[in-house]
């Protein structure tokens, strides 16, 4: 008897319920609920639609007893952290390993999500090369790269551009999971890459490739496969435009690790962010640049968002420097503001949360007495970075003041601090880290909340710290 937990999933919105309904309770669509059986952890050979024979799977076990419960004492014995992971060589490999929490964990299922065209296939092809190199020396480092998106020739061309020549990467164009599994048996690879989860399907599961059912079942099948064989499996998932339907979001709870690749198409910078990691922390961020030979590691990301204007000319109106911490990295950002009198638009933000900017503008009007009411205010974070940290508040306020008062801020001044509703400056986390970064970059003065001054008193840096209690003090001192 099938003992797996049964749930009903809406084929349209992905809502899950314990029983069948004719109309989805979440999205109100008719007749969209389909049965879904959760994956069974114990491998008892009754996995739906997954026809690789028990014996074949068994042959993958290095040790036959791997699925028997083991005592914690036995498990941790002799397995120190570094042995547990495959570290990727080179600078790009170092960056990726860091995001993964120190390397690739054997037997883990890693989902790499991102917008179409952001560079996921490029990243995974580079990871394939690094993995095979990383395995070198031990036994053969064969990697199987399965693509349902592109032809073998297309991937071959990409490998040429990336200067990847290793004979250990095997390309296979297929969308049938069972067919893929059969071929894996022959090759015995050390890692499997599936590009992408939206193109593969399992026979016997309803729906076409890319539907919610297929995507979930295929991911579950690959998870079982990763656990049984103890090889790492990478999955590519496109973030779909229409609200993530059948996209990576709904797979996050199934897989071990979720990485998202981000980047504006107008810039060449790509960020790799870990949003879930069963084997490490999630506040790591990898920074890359897409070049004509693939992704390159950016070793000094602090200054990558600075425009020529700042390094070239001495001063400019409506420009202030913010210092933002994301993951374990510090970024120096340029905030631009433009105040325009007598315009019909009221406000436009690019890279800054609109509600946050409204708050800052309101505080500037009420607490600092700036007559901004007749102005259209445009705000922009240079280079398409999305600023979510409130530590950037003060820089936004300073940029607005600078534009409104038509008073330039010297280009060696940075602003750090959160703004409260009374116009007071509030302290922000990791201040030492921010200040030492800008000091290294040559900034001479930094405005911070007065309350944080003693926190950094012990830092011996070549930078003038200006502690202010509120916005009025900042305006008095700078403008
Ligand atoms: P791709 O990896 O195909 O994106 P995804 O798999 O996420 O859809 O790469 C997308 C873009 O990257 C493509 O428009 C071209 C660019 N690119 C480079 O700039 N340099 C390179 O070396 C490669 C391989 C791609
Ligand atoms: Mg692709």
Automatic annotation (TrEMBL):
GO MF annotation terms: ATP binding; ATP-dependent DNA damage sensor activity; damaged DNA binding; hydrolase activity; zinc ion binding
Keyword NADP: no
Keywords: ATP-binding, DNA damage, DNA repair, DNA-binding, Hydrolase, Metal-binding, Nucleotide-binding, Stress response, Zinc, Zinc-finger
Domain RecA family profile: 85-239
Record flagged with keyword ATP-binding: yes
InterPro entries according to UniProt: AAA+_ATPase (IPR003593), DNA_repair_RadA (IPR004504), P-loop_NTPase (IPR027417), RecA_ATP-bd (IPR020588), Ribosomal_Su5_D2-typ_SF (IPR020568), Ribsml_uS5_D2-typ_fold_subgr (IPR014721), Rubredoxin_2 (IPR041166)
GO biological process: recombinational repair
SUPFAM superfamilies reported in the protein's UniProt record: P-loop containing nucleoside triphosphate hydrolases, Ribosomal protein S5 domain 2-like
SMART domains attached to this UniProt entry: AAA (SM00382)
Name this polypeptide is given: DNA repair protein radA-like protein
